[in-house]
């Protein structure tokens, strides 16, 4: 087939294109991913029994805000990385801000605590399971985001894989917050972060294979 | 002075192509055809300069890039400049080809400072791989839908009537078929 024949073929009955289809796709993936994570959490772990009291403590909301800020920043990164020719300028400080804020809060908390208490503030009671549970709860959103981004056009596949992994793990972390009893900033700054870095690492590894088009 | 002329020309090309594409995305098939034709001339010059050592592959890559532009056209934001979008797609397809050929991409002159719309080349060579042959390998529903709608120019309703599929299934089949075609082009190349 000659190139002009191909052009005619492509242009024939090509129809109108919905310019919002890209964002709809990502929106749908987030919806399904959050739903899947909530379902998984309800079946596997259950909501923390003291949720009623927890919601009245500021730290509960700090924890949620931490994950949601990361979600918004990574979502912005994914939407730029999924469309050819857009730059990512200024994204690094936005991604780092919630982490650094949590570290500062953690340092303040540790400094003000009784030395004997510090180790417990950092390790909590659930440090062993926290990162892996966040990673597990990220799986539905990871699969959904992979589907969404595969329907778009990422040109930097490792970065796009990492960014979609961070979207998935932030969703996982938001949902996990409703189960997890930990409320100390040093814990959130370390173990939550560690869990939230697993899906981006997987995404960056698999990106070049799963996202090519 | 010459530099200003060149930049003015680039800006004009960008403006003209962008307007054609935006009309095309609104459903104006004639504008879309003009966009792809114009684009192919720029893509060919862009890719030929960068494939000096693989001259036989230029036309295949022009076709692959055109199909990529078509399949990913929903990722173009109508308010954004067109040049970076096209440039990123062409470069992505070029790097992809060089990797398949086992070339060390780092040593290739990818960005010589000339953007994708800076030159034209309407001298289309014969493509080595025949897309018509690749179409034969698609699943029946996709192949039939593409043949009716895209090659014979029938409407979705007529195509649905012939293939016994629903209208929405026909549209999905065309969309998936063209994506599958792109994947096959990559594999066969």
Protein traits:
heterodimer; A: about 210 residues; mainly alpha; elongated; B: about 190 residues; Arc Repressor Mutant, subunit A
Characterize the structure shown.
- The complex is a heterodimer of chains A (213) and B (189).
- The mean pLDDT of chain A is 94.
- Chain A is elongated and about 75 Å long.
- Chain A has ten helices and no strands.
- By secondary structure, chain B is an all-alpha fold.
- Helix content of chain B is 67%, strand content 0%.
- Chain B has eight helices and no strands.
- In chain B, helix 7 crosses helix 8.
- The longest helix of chain B has 24 residues.
- Chains A and B meet through helix 1 of A and helix 2, helix 3, helix 4, helix 6 and helix 8 of B.
Total domains of chain A, how many?
1
The SSE order of chain A reads HHHHHHHHHH
**What is the CA-based Rg of chain B, rounded?**
18 Å
Report how far apart the termini of chain B are.
43 Å
Specify which chain pair forms the largest interface.
A-B, 30 and 58 residues
Largest sheet of chain A: none
Let me know the average pLDDT of chain B: 89
SSE sequence of chain B, one letter per element:
HHHHHHHH
C-alpha Rg of chain A (nearest Å): 20 Å
Strand content of chain B: under 5%
In total, how many domains does the architecture of chain B comprise?
Answer: 2
* Shape by Cα distribution of chain B: globular
- How big a fraction of the residues of chain A is strand? under 5%
Number of DSSP strand runs of chain A? 0
């Amino acid at each position: 087939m000659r190139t002009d024949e191909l052009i005619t073929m492509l242009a024939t009955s090509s129809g109108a294109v919905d310019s919002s289809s890209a964002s709809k796709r990502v929106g749908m993936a987030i919806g399904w991913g959050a739903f899947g994570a909530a379902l998984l959490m309800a079946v596997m772990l259950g909501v923390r029994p003291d949720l009623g009291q927890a919601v009245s403590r500021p730290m509960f909301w700090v924890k949620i805000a931490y994950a949601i800020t990361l979600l918004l920043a990574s979502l912005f990164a994914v939407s730029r990385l999924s469309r050819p020719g857009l730059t990512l300028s200024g994204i690094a400080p936005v991604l780092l801000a919630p982490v650094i804020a949590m570290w500062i809060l953690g340092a303040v908390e540790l400094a003000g605590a009784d030395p004997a208490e510090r180790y417990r503030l950092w390790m909590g009671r659930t440090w062993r399971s926290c990162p892996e549970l966040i990673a597990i709860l990220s799986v539905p959103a990871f699969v959904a985001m992979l589907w969404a981004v595969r329907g778009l056009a990422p040109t930097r596949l490792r970065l796009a894989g990492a960014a979609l992994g961070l979207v998935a793990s932030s969703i996982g972390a938001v949902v996990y917050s409703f189960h997890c009893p930990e409320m100390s900033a040093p814990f959130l700054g370390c173990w939550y972060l560690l869990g939230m870095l697993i899906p981006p690492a997987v995404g960056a590894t698999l990106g070049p294979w799963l996202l090519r088009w | 002075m010459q530099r200003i002329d060149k930049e003015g020309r680039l800006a004009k090309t960008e403006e003209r192509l962008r307007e054609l594409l935006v009309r095309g995305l609104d459903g104006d098939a004639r504008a879309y055809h003009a966009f792809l034709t114009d684009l192919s001339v720029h893509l060919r010059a862009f890719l030929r300069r960068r494939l000096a050592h693989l001259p036989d592959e230029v036309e295949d890559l022009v076709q692959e890039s055109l199909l990529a532009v078509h399949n990913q056209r929903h990722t173009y934001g109508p308010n954004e400049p067109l040049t970076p979008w096209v440039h990123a797609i062409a470069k992505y397809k070029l790097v992809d080809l060089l990797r398949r050929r086992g070339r060390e991409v780092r040593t290739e002159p990818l960005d010589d400072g000339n953007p994708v719309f800076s030159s034209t080349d309407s001298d289309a060579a014969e493509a080595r791989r025949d897309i018509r042959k690749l179409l034969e390998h698609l699943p029946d529903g996709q192949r039939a839908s593409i043949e009716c709608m895209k090659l014979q120019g029938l409407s979705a309703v007529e195509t649905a009537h012939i293939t016994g599929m629903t209208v929405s299934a026909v549209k999905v089949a065309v969309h998936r078929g063209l994506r599958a075609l792109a994947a096959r082009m990559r594999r066969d190349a």
